[in-house]
Amino acid sequence: MKETKQRLQESSTSEESLAEPGVAGPGVVYVGRIPHGFYEKEMREYFSQFGKINKLKLSRNKKTGKSRHFAFIEFESAEAAQIVAETMNNYLLHNHLLKCNVVPKDKIHPMIWCGLGKKIKPGLAIKVAANKFNRRRSAKEITDMANRLIRKDNERRKKMKELGINYEFSGYSQSS
C-alpha cells in the first residue's frame, strides 16, 4: 500500500513537471450512468475524438467484475475535459442519459487510479473465501470450535427452559 502511494506521488509530481507553464495541465472528467456495453475499449474510442486520453478507469465490482456504471477519464488538457463535460452531459446513449462533470484537482482522490490495468476475475473472491473456510485447522482450533458449539448448545437449552419450553433435541451436549 505504501509503495502504491509513493508511486502515485512520484507520478503526480512528474506529471506536474511535464506540464508547460502556459498550459493548464490534465483534466479529469467523471462520467456517470454509463449503459451496459459501453466499456473501456468503447469509451476510449469514443472519447478520444475530444483529445488525447491519459487514463481511463471504469469502476467495476470486485466480486463479479461487472461495471458499476461510472468512470473517470483523464485528458491531456483541461480544455478538452471541459469540452467533454459540456458536450456529453445529458447525452442520450443506449437509452441512458450520461452525466459528465469536470472533477476539480483538489477533489481528486489520490487512489482514484489504483488498479488501472488490473483485470478483475469473476469468482476469485468466492474461491479465496472457500479456501479460507476449508483450510486445515490445528488441534487447538478444533477443540476451541467444539467447545464453542457445546457452550452455544447449552445456552440455547437454558434459554428454552427459562421461557418454559419443554423440548428435547439432539445437540452437541446432552441435557442433565
TrEMBL record:
UniProt domain RRM: residue ranges: 27-105
Gene3D superfamilies (UniProt xref): 3.30.70.330
One GO cellular component term: nucleolus
Compartment list: Nucleus, Nucleolus
Region (Disordered), start-end ranges: 1-21
GO MF terms held by the record: RNA binding
Sorted UniProt keywords: Nucleus, RNA-binding
Database matches in InterPro entries: Nucleotide-bd_a/b_plait_sf, RBD_domain_sf, RRM_dom
One Pfam family cited in the UniProt record for this chain: RRM_1
Taxonomic superkingdom: Eukaryota
PANTHER family: MKI67 FHA DOMAIN-INTERACTING NUCLEOLAR PHOSPHOPROTEIN
Protein name: 6496_t:CDS:1
